[in-house]
Structure formats: C-alpha cells, structure tokens
Write a structure and sequence with these properties.
The complex is a heterodimer of chains A (337) and B (741). Chain A is of the alpha+beta class and 337 residues long. Chain A is 30% helix and 20% strand. In chain A, the strands form three sheets. In chain A, strands 4-5-8-6-7 form a five-stranded antiparallel β-sheet. In chain A, helix 5 runs antiparallel to helix 9 (164-170), helix 11 packs antiparallel against helix 12 (285-296) and helix 12 runs antiparallel to helix 13 (307-325). Chain A is globular. Chain B is α+β, with helices and mostly antiparallel strands. Helix content of chain B is 24%, strand content 26%. A seven-stranded mixed β-sheet of chain B has the order 3-6-1-13-10-11-12. In chain B, a hairpin with a 4-residue loop joins strand 22 and strand 23 (461-464). The chains are: A alpha+beta (337), B alpha+beta (741).
Chain lengths: 337, 741
C-alpha cells in the first residue's frame, strides 16, 4: 500500500473540481473494492476524494420510474420498499452479491465501477493488459475458469463481477453523470465496455466524471422475474454464470422479455435480439432454449471455462422457467426453485 | 469421582475471546514498538541479482531494511535452524542468501516507526532477479518423484508399511476388483489469525517473543538456534491462537525476521504477515493416489494396493505415512504400499488437520464405494465384511475399537436403511438426492508432558503447562480435569499455558494434547493429594490417620476415604493444620507403550447431498458423524471440534483448492474471497454422535483425542453421495459443478 492524500468533497461540483485538479486522484465512497486494490498496489491513487457524504442517498419516484442516488448503500437499496415492491429483480440481484457487511458499505455508483476479479489483475507480479496495458494477458493461457466466454478480445478475457449491474442492464436503467462539461446520461448498455484493444477501460465514464444517480424506467417486471446465480459455493462467491430474466406475459404468451447475463463477459451481457425472439413466443422451455442459443451463438470457451457455454444455456432456460412460473430464485434459501 | 469431566462445559476463555480481552501475538504493545513489513519474491526459482532499498530507506520513519546482504550474522549450519518437528533436509532460512526457492519467499524486511510507513516503504524496494526454470505441478512431475525406500519402523514411522502377502497376484486373481486414480490439490490452512510475532528486547538482555504458534518451547529453541542465544534468554508467549490447524507446528519465518530486527535495533519489533504472504507458508501437499482393491470369492477384500505421489520442496523432504491407512483400516491378507515424493519449487508442505489421513482415506473410501458398486453390495456391509479386528501392520489388537458401533449408530441416526442403492434413484423435486458414507480413522497418540499444580490455602489451584490452546478448548478441558482431580469447583481453577517458562510440553498437534495433558494433570494431582494427606495426618485425631494415599480421593474440597465417605478432611484444614498456605508440585508424565496394542480413533460419516439435475449445483443437506474416540472430556467442545471437521470436510469435497499458475509458480487465489471454504449457506444439518469408547488400556483416563478424526472420511462420504445422486464419479477434488458434466 502506498501513501496517499485524502480530501472530502463538499458537493458534486466540488468533487468534480477536486478530481480534475490532480491527475491520479480517485473518488472513494464505500471503498469495498478500491481499498483492497490499494493494498494490492493495483490502484495507486495520489489522492482520495471522499464523496461518501455527498447528498446522493435518496431513492425518489420520478416520471413513473425511480431515481436512485449514487451513494445509496447496496443494502438500503435492496430493502427499500419501492425497490422491493416494484423492482424485485434488482433487489434479488443485489442480495445475491457479496456479503451483508460488504453490501452495507458498498454504494450504488461504486457497484457499477468495481473492477474485475481476474486473479492476474490483482497480482502485480504477473502481466495483465487491464492493469498494465501492453504487458499481455496471463488469463488467456492461464487460470481462466472464471473468465468470459462472450465479447472477449485477444487482450483481455476478464468479466465484470457485479450482480446488481446484471439486473440494471435487464431493467434498461440509465446512468446520470456529472463532469467538467456538465451533466449527461448514459444508457446502461453503453455504460460498460468490451475489452477490445483498451481493456484498461471498464466503462465509458469520461475522465473526471462522477456518477450521481441511476434512473429506472417504469417497467419493473414485478410478477415474472428471476435472478439466478450459479457459483462455486452457495454464498459469497462471484458468479460462474448469472442470469437476470424478466417477462411480461399474456397467458402463456410472452409480451416482453428481458435477459442479461453476469459472469460471462467484460460487461453485463444483455442480448436484445434474444429478447426480440421471445416476444410473441410461448413461455416454454423450447422458446427459452432458442433465446439461449441466440445469446450463446458467438460464445467461445477457453481451456478451463468452456463449461460455461452449456451452463449458461441451462441457467437461461431455468431462470426464464422460474420467471414464467412466478417462482423467482430465493436469495436466502439456496435451493434452486 | 467426576463432576466436570465429560460435561458440556462452555469455554473458560470464551468471555475473554468475545470481549477482546484475549490478546494475540500481534496485539501486544511495548514502548517504542517498531513495525516490520515483508517484501517477497515474484519469481519461483533463481537468484537475487540486486536489491535496491535506497528509496525505501529514504522514507521518513523507516528505521532499517534487512536483506540477505544487509543483516546481522546468521549461523551457517542446518542444525541451527532445525525445529523440533522439522523434516529431513535443509530448513528454509529467511534472508540468508540470494537463492530464491519458491515464489512469495521473503527477500527483505522493512522496519519503520509505523506499520503503514513500513508497508509503503516495502513497496519501494526494487528486486532484480536472475530467473531459472521452475516446476510446481505434481501432475507434470510425478515421473520425477523419488520413491521412499524402506518400511515403517519406530524410528521412521512415515515410511510405507511393510507389505504382506502378494497384493499383485491376489489382485490379478480376484474375481471382482476396482482400480482407480484419485487426485487432491494443494490446500492451505487459512487460519483467521495472521502469522505474527512481537519481539521485545528486555533490559536484562533477554528477548520476550509473542508469537502465533502451536509450540512455544519449539519456537524458543528454534529462535535460540537462529540467534545463537541461550534458550533461557528467550521467553516465548502464545496465550491464544486464532486457528493454526498444523500450520503453527513449525516456527514461521516472521519470528526470525522480528527477532533479528528487534535485536539489531534494540527495540521491540512486530511483524505481521499479510494474507497473501500466508500462502508461502506450509500447505497440505497435493496427492495423486492409485488404489487397487481385489475381492476374493468369499466377498471380502483379498488385495489392497495403495500408491501415492505427494509434493515436497527442493530443500526438505516432507511426507507422512500416506499409504498405510488402507491396510490398517481393512482386513486383507495381501497389501502393498508405494509412496513417491516429488520435489518442487514450492515451500515445504506441512501438517494440516489429519495430515495424510484426510487425503489418503478420501481415496481409499471413494475406492471402497466403487468396489461396493461393483459388488452390488451396501457400502456399510462391505466395510463390515472387511472389518479389521487387529492392526495388521503389526499383528496386534487395538486398545479399543468402536467402529462397528459408529456404523450402527451413525446409520440409524441417518436412516441409512431407507437408501435406495441405485444411483439417480432418489429425488426431491428438481434435485437428485444422494446418500454416501465413509469411514474415518486416526491415531490416538500421547506425548511426555509436565504439569505443575500450585494449590493455595484458600482452595484455589493454578495448573500450568507450556502447551498451546489452538482454539480447540485446551484451557477448558484442563480446568475440568483439574477440578475433578483436585476435588475443587471449576471456578477455583486457573489455567496457565502458552508460555515457554511453564513446564515442558511438546507442540500441540496430532490430537495428542488432550490425552497427554489430562493424564499429566491426574499424575500431578495425585502427588498433590499425597502431600495434602501427609499434612492432614499432622492433625490430632485425623480421621484419615491410617489411610494409605491410594485409599484417599480429592472430592468436594476434601480428602475423602474411598471406603468411608464420613472420614474426610477439608483441603483448607489440611493445609492450615499442616502449616502451609501454598503447595506446589510438578510431575512429568510419560506414556509407556509396550507396543502390544494399536491405538486408534474411528468414525463413520453419513452424508446426504442434493444436486440440481439441470445445473449441477451441489448442496450438502445432512451429515451424521459418529465417532469412537475414547472418553469425551467435554461434550460441547468435542462436538464443536467434530462439527468443525465436518465443515472442513465439506470444503475439501466441494470447495478447497490452492490455484497455482504453473507458468509463474504463483498462488493466484491467495485470499479468502477466492480460496473457497464453506460459508454458512454451505452447511446445513450436522449431527455428531460419540459412541461409548471406553478404553482402560490406553491411559488412566481413557482419553484418545479428537483434533483430527472429525475431518477424516468426510470428503469421501460427500463424494460418494454425489456419485449416488448423479451416477457420475468425480475422482479429483474439489467436486465443482463443471466436473459433473
């Protein structure tokens, strides 16, 4: 761990001003990932700008949807009555992640910006293009059981570790940001990036921008949803594959479907063409399997993670089956419905 | 007369632990305490070409940077670094030379006024290496492994046992057989408490060493050797240990670094390892086992062959008797054993809970399950057919063996008779249900130990021994035994342990301390009784005037005639009339073993798993562990010990694996987020049964010890249940869901 300066931001404008003033400065909110990265010397910020006291902790109804302040703790969000009642998919995904203690500390905005859990990214003694651009990817020919099967590049096969973001992708959220150039919004699908030639960039957040809020559209898929997370132990482990599935049904006909995957790509993997294929189809395993085939058409496994292709297909079918039956995966009982 | 022995007594140190009053090695403070931070290697093999510590030294607050070129003199002979339980070979010497023997090896220590400054400055130490090719993968090196020659003896118990009959011929002739290869990975102990040492130079030239260890006197002798000091000038204190599981049997390198720095700087120094650095200490060696089992026409075992390949370092040869468990556990006229050890560019492995048995019995019991399938026989029935009434290695009886009762009571509690034998034949909704079982076995060992008792005129006793309590409950069982042996209330007993100035004790390991220290207390208490009786006899008209010592017991605060309870003298009166207000006795107890009997503990484990058929997700929904381990000293801590073993067995079966990238030779999941052990969600119904384990032969109190037995066999029971659920036999642990495809 290296030395760093610390300052507190007074308001959003001040936060933006402070971070722009010093190269190598980082915002810190819950610190659940950044502090670890600093201990590993992966992150070496010269200055931490503490945004944890900014007034970004509200959850408000706006335009039929919900606006979630960037500093709402993950736990508060999962148990917020409006979220629990109107966006149970989001609540479920949050509770599938981390531990109660981490969720208490972690912020909504920080959850979007957490870094990959690729082993090599965390070990400064090994090459990693995400950590040290141009040094090489150790995972491609190394321990890649946890790694991506979709949207990979020759430079990086890391995954985005968030559960919450998988639900946000499925729910078609919007990210509100503020930067030196003012405020703007980023569609959730555009927020995270694929690795391409620049795996060091996780998101399209511009330098010196701060996330201020997440906007949820009105449609919450209250009746038919499921967040299914498959992992190596039954709690406190990152997803091998996770699926956010949501349906609007008319009898057993699908009026609308949403599908996003975690643990398979550098970003939460939402596949609109698979959703389109489900629209108007019968809510049965054949339709879900067809959607899964579309999702996985271009999937590619590596030495240790090829099992994810079959697992993802099965998990998609299962999550949609749970959603259609109105029996979402419980995040407290680990029994899969 | 027992009141406390056996009772479910809460830990006497529980309050201190949960309130934070219990101090661990990194929590001792001293005026002027400096902090050390370790720099470790980033290559697995080679030489240090250059270390540039100039930038680190320039950081304000940095006191010193120690490296192999910049350190006080260290002895050059191996003997100076040999601890009590070191294996054959040349022990690792931290900061001794420029040779890198394994990845994450300590190469420098930065000492500063503040821990944060030390850690920052450590990040500025630049090390250049001349790298050499390394090998860290047992699966690639198994052909290069060296066969262990010779057979087990008193002097070298860790060699394979002598073969009997001709296993090869018997196997070839067997009408039913099974041969299989089983693989287990490297595992790390991951105790909650990080390895740490706080070393305080005292004004009189002595050193006080607060250390995390399973053996304070082992560390005392070791540090004396490395520092070339007289052992009397070193006091090692370890009152509490936050888990060790065998990793603390040998002294760890941070104690050397802290001691070197403290002596050089002449001020107290604390060194705490990081979680990542803990993965460059000892580990459970990876193991590849080939097992052949042949069954005679009578349907019982006729041939056992157990071959093992394990891992060691280049500088030491670590192994245990991995292969002998099979021929010990089951009767078979023919048995043979082979063990090869592969030296790799890794730290030396070490003991980890039930070393050798946890892994070897997994393979044996998985193979026995496969044999039962081949025979279309119930797995319990197969084991009963092969039940060994005698230790076949040495053709002698067991001092006691309660395994048959473990099978019976375990099966009954589990409901084993309702098992449908066909794989994939039991279901619960979308889950496949599997029931599996396995046997566990461990040794009941005992070691020479000294115990001091100081009895004061107010009826309080202090009981002292240099043993450790590594979290198992040693404080508590010592207090229970002392209370019963001295006839005093539990609250009147104070236990002192974990201090090298106390009476001699070997390291706490091998499940031997409970039996040893409890009988040790009994020995010393007997001498205390004798002295009390002599004092009582000074009374005029003493009711015990003509009583022989062995006719008198200590009970309810009194010396009481065993023949006539009305003849009694209170301990307080005896001391008052005898004119003493303090009485001290110390005795060493040795356990003479004629070798006439084998001493073992046994268990039977029954496990239920539910496997989601579509996704392969495995849940261990029920485990029953029935244990025969002699007399149980404390029903509560004993059950906790076995439950903990079951939880660890779940981890061994499904989760635990140290992931080494063999290109770099580095452990890549060196933290407890990525190194998976079971969490609460993975642990469901665990039932522990102690079968009546009376053993009058083994030692006066009939104690066998339970530290290790809890884990043995659990992984096999779960693996066998997974097979029963799915029809898929996974022969390499851990059984992750991808292996079920």
């Amino acid at each position: 761990m290296i030395g760093f300066a610390y300052a507190r931001a007074h308001d959003v404008a001040d936060a933006v001003r402070q971070i722009a003033a010093q190269p190598g400065a980082r915002f810190i909110a819950g610190g659940t990932n950044l502090v670890d990265l600093m201990k590993y010397e992966v992150e070496r910020p010269a200055r931490l700008i503490d945004i944890s006291r900014l007034p970004l902790r509200n959850v408000e109804e706006t335009g039929g949807g919900l606006r979630i302040g960037a500093l709402v703790p993950n736990s508060d969000l999962a148990y917020h009555p409006l979220v629990a009642q109107r966006y149970p998919l989001l609540a479920s995904a949050i509770l599938a992640g981390a531990s109660a203690q981490l969720r208490n500390m972690a912020s909504t905005g920080g959850n979007l910006l957490q870094r990959t859990r690729c082993y090599y990214f965390y070990d400064v003694a090994t090459p990693c293009n995400k950590r040290a651009p141009g040094s090489g990817c150790s995972a491609i020919n190394g321990l890649n059981r946890m790694h991506a099967i979709l949207g990979t590049s020759d430079t990086c096969i890391a995954t985005h570790p968030s559960d919450m973001c998988v639900a946000l992708a499925a729910l078609d959220a919007t990210v509100h940001v503020t930067g030196p150039a003012g405020e703007r919004t980023i569609a959730f699908a555009e927020f995270h990036r694929l690795p391409g030639d620049t795996p060091q960039l996780d998101s399209n957040l511009a330098p010196n921008e701060i996330i201020t809020a997440i906007q949820l559209p009105p449609q919450g898929f209250v009746r038919n949803y499921s967040y299914l997370k498959i992992r190596d132990r039954l709690s406190y482990a990152f997803a091998l594959v996770s699926v956010a599935a949501a349906l609007e049904l008319d009898g057993d006909t699908i009026k609308e479907a949403r599908l996003a995957l975690g643990g398979v790509a550098h970003k939460p993997w939402r596949v609109v063409v698979a959703e389109d294929a489900l629209r108007g189809a019968k809510a049965d395993r054949a339709s879900f399997g067809h959607a899964a085939d579309i999702v996985l058409r271009d999937a590619k496994g590596f030495a240790h993670n090829a099992f994810k292709l079959d697992l993802a297909r099965r998990a998609i079918v299962r999550a949609f089956s749970q959603a259609a039956a109105g029996t979402p995966q419980s995040q407290s009982s680990k029994k899969i419905a | 007369m027992t009141t406390y022995i056996g009772a479910a007594t809460s830990r006497v140190d529980g309050r201190a632990k949960v309130t934070g009053a219990a101090k661990y090695a990194a929590e001792f403070d001293a005026p002027g305490l400096a902090h050390g931070s370790v720099v470790t290697s980033t290559i697995s093999k080679g030489r240090i070409a250059r270390i540039d510590a100039a930038e680190a030294r320039s950081v304000p607050g940095v006191l010193a940077v120690f490296t192999h070129t910049d350190r006080p003199p260290m002895p050059s002979e191996d003997s100076a670094y040999k601890d009590d339980v070191a294996p054959e070979g040349s022990p690792f010497r931290p900061l001794y030379d420029d040779v890198v023997r394994f990845n994450n090896q300590p190469v420098a220590l930065v000492v500063a006024e503040e821990a944060e400054v030390a850690r920052f400055a450590a990040s500025l130490v630049r090390v250049e290496y001349q790298q050499e090719p390394h090998a860290t993968d047992l699966h690639h090196q198994r052909q290069a492994a060296n066969a262990l020659d010779g057979h087990a003896s008193e002097q070298n118990p860790f060699l394979p046992p002598k073969p009997r009959g001709s296993a090869q011929q018997a196997f070839a002739a067997a009408p039913v057989r099974h041969a299989g290869e089983y693989s287990t990975p490297i595992e790390h102990h991951n105790p909650m408490e990080l390895y740490a040492s706080t070393v305080v130079p005292e004004p009189d030239g002595t050193l006080t060493v607060y250390d995390k260890t399973q053996g304070v006197q082992n560390v005392q002798r070791y540090v004396a050797g490395v520092l070339q000091m007289s052992p009397e000038k070193i006091r090692v204190v370890s009152h509490f240990v936050g888990g060790a599981f065998g990793s603390g049997l040998r002294p760890q390198y941070q104690v050397v670094l802290a001691a070197l720095a403290a002596r050089t700087l002449n001020r107290p120094v604390r060194v705490v390892l990081t979680r990542q650095q803990m993965y460059a200490l000892g580990f459970r060696p990876a193991m590849i086992q080939q097992i052949e089992l042949g069954v005679s026409g009578k349907g019982a075992l006729d041939a056992i062959t157990h071959d093992a390949a394990t891992v060691t370092s280049r500088h030491e040869i670590f192994h245990r008797q991995e292969t002998g468990w099979s021929g010990l556990l089951y009767a078979s006229p023919n048995a043979s054993y082979h063990h090869r050890v592969a030296p790799l560019d890794l730290p030396t492995p070490c003991d980890m809970r039930a070393p050798s048995a946890a892994t070897a019995v997994y393979a044996l019991e998985a193979a026995m399950d496969e044999l039962a399938v081949a025979l279309k026989l119930d797995p319990v029935e197969l084991r009963l057919r092969c039940y060994s009434e005698r230790d076949q290695h040495f053709d002698r009886p067991y001092s006691s063996k309660g395994l048959r009762e473990c099978y019976r009571q375990g099966a009954a509690a589990f409901g084993w008779d309702r098992r449908s034998p066909e794989p994939r034949s039991m279901r619960d909704g979308t889950d496949l249900v599997g029931w599996g079982m396995a046997t566990g076995v461990w040794e009941a060992l005992q070691v020479p130990i000294a115990v001091r008792i100081v009895l004061t005129g107010n009826g309080h006793a202090e009981v002292a021994c240099a043993t450790s309590d590594i979290g198992t409950g040693t404080y508590t069982i010592m207090a229970q035994v002392a209370a019963d042996m001295l006839g005093l209330p539990l609250d009147n007993i104070t236990i002192k342990l974990g201090d090298s100035t106390l009476p001699q004790s070997p390291v706490e390991g091998g499940s031997w301390i409970a039996a040893s220290v409890a009988n040790g207390i009994a020995t010393t208490a007997r001498v205390v009784r004798d002295e009390l009786l002599a004092l009582a006899k000074r009374m005029t008209d003493c009711p015990l005037a003509d009583a022989a010592p062995d006719d008198v017991a200590l009970a309810d605060g009194k010396l009481v005639s065993r023949h006539d309870a009305s003849r009694a003298v209170s301990i307080i009166d005896a001391m008052r009339y005898g004119g003493v207000d303090r009485l001290e006795q110390e005795e060493t107890t040795k356990f003479e073993d004629s070798g006439a009997h084998a001493h073992n503990t046994h268990s039977a484990i029954f496990a239920e798993v539910k496997v989601d058929e579509e996704l392969g997700v495995i849940r261990v929904t029920r485990v029953v562990s029935a244990v025969a381990a002699g007399r149980i000293l404390n029903a509560k801590t004993a059950a906790s010990q076995i439950s903990g073993g079951v939880v660890w067995g779940i981890g061994m079966a499904l989760h635990e694996e140290t992931l080494i990238d063999h290109t770099f030779g580095r452990v890549m999941n060196a933290n407890i987020a990525e190194y998976h052990v079971p969490v609460n969600a993975d642990v469901h119904d665990v039932q522990v049964i102690f079968v009546d384990g009376k053993d009058d032969e083994i030692n006066p109190l009939g104690i066998k010890g339970l530290g290790e037995i809890g884990i043995v066999g659990v992984a096999a029971a779960i693996a066998n249940a997974v097979y029963h659920a799915t029809g898929k036999r996974v022969r390499d642990l851990p059984i992750t869901l991808d292996k079920l495809r």
